[in-house]
Amino acid sequence: MRHFLFVVIGVVLILNNSSAQKTSLSMQDNSLSTQEKSEGWKLLFDGKTTNGWHSYGYSTVANAWNIDNGSLHLDVADRKNWPANESKDILTNEEYDNFHLKVDWKLAKKGNSGIIVYVHEDKAKYRNTYETGPEMQVLDNAGHADAKIPKHRAGDLYDLISSSSEPVKPAEEWNHAEIMCKDGKLQFFLNGVSIVTTTMWNDSWEKMIAGSKFKSMPGFGTFKKGKIALQEHGEEVWFKNIKIRKL
Questions:
Q1: Does residue 101 sit in helix, strand or coil?
Q2: SS3 breakdown of the chain: % helix, strand, coil, rounded to 5?
Q3: Does domain 31-246 have CATH number 3.40.1190.20?
Q4: How far is residue 165 from each of residues 156, 190, 199, 220, 247, measured CA to CA in Å?
Q5: Reduced to 3 states, what is the DSSP secondary structure of residue 176?
Q6: How many alpha carbons fall within 13 Å on the CB side of residue 208?
Q7: Which of 6, 7, 125, 143 lies at a CB distance of 3.0 to 4.6 Å from 110, suitable for a disulfide?
């Protein structure tokens, strides 16, 4: 009887360990679970290459970005030698209209970056990604000077709407961001908390833009389909687990 119990316990432990291994494998960075695949999620970053991305106005990704332990990393060590006129914001090759985007990000101390959506890539007309695309602010609230400016803190719809709460983690820790847009309803989530909800492309949206720093940019926030950009702001930042589902 004792021997039988030992055998049963051993089998249970093996099964539990196998289950744990499967769970661990399903949770690996830059991968999709079976459920995510069935729901239509697509990886935008494979953790190994910059395939599917390019710098704004270019066909390839600027050398400032590299692959660092399964993340897209803006390496600022050689910043003084960056080409002066080279755009270092990187964009998806594909455009999106209705979508649900997930991204993990972390910053070095005093870091600043952003996730920009609905970017219309026409460098002859718009020199920068932010001239057309609204941005979820990525910031070290405790260390960067921009945190002193309302609507410029982590999770804010940059210069337009302040985050309703601040569930952001400290510099050098990973944050999980989500951006959803369906028929103009724009939602931001940070670390599982809903922080911004608004409606784009209506009279209230236009009025809000008119009261912001984007009022002199006629293309800003007007495009209903566009690319997704990760911003270069001169400070070190990492992104991983970038995935999207069309809605």
A1: strand
A2: 20, 30, 50
A3: no
A4: 10, 9, 19, 26, 26
A5: strand
A6: 19
A7: 143
CB atoms within 10 A of CB 132: 26
- Per-residue pLDDT tens digits for 86-120: 668 999 999 999 999 999 999 999 999 999 999 99
What whole-number distance in Å separates Cα of residue 34 and Cα of residue 29?
14
- Over the stretch 32-80, which tens digit does the pLDDT of each residue have? 999 999 999 999 999 999 999 999 999 999 889 999 999 999 998 877 7
Instruction: Give dist(CA 32, CA 41) in Å, integer.
Output: 7
Separation of alpha carbons 167 and 42, rounded Å: 26
Bridging pattern class, strands 90-92 and 53-55: antiparallel
Alpha carbon distance, N-terminus to C-terminus of the chain: 57
**Separation of CA 36 from chain center:** 18
Of 148, 136, 131, the closest CA to residue 186 belongs to 136
**Which residue, chain included where needed, has tokens 């990760």?**
230
Alpha-helix residue ranges (DSSP H) falling in the chain = 2-26, 34-38, 203-210
Cα-to-chain-centroid distance, residue 239: 7
In this structure, the strands spanning 185-190 and 237-246 are unpaired
Length of the chain: 247
3 state DSSP class of 55:
strand
pTM for this model (two decimals): 0.88
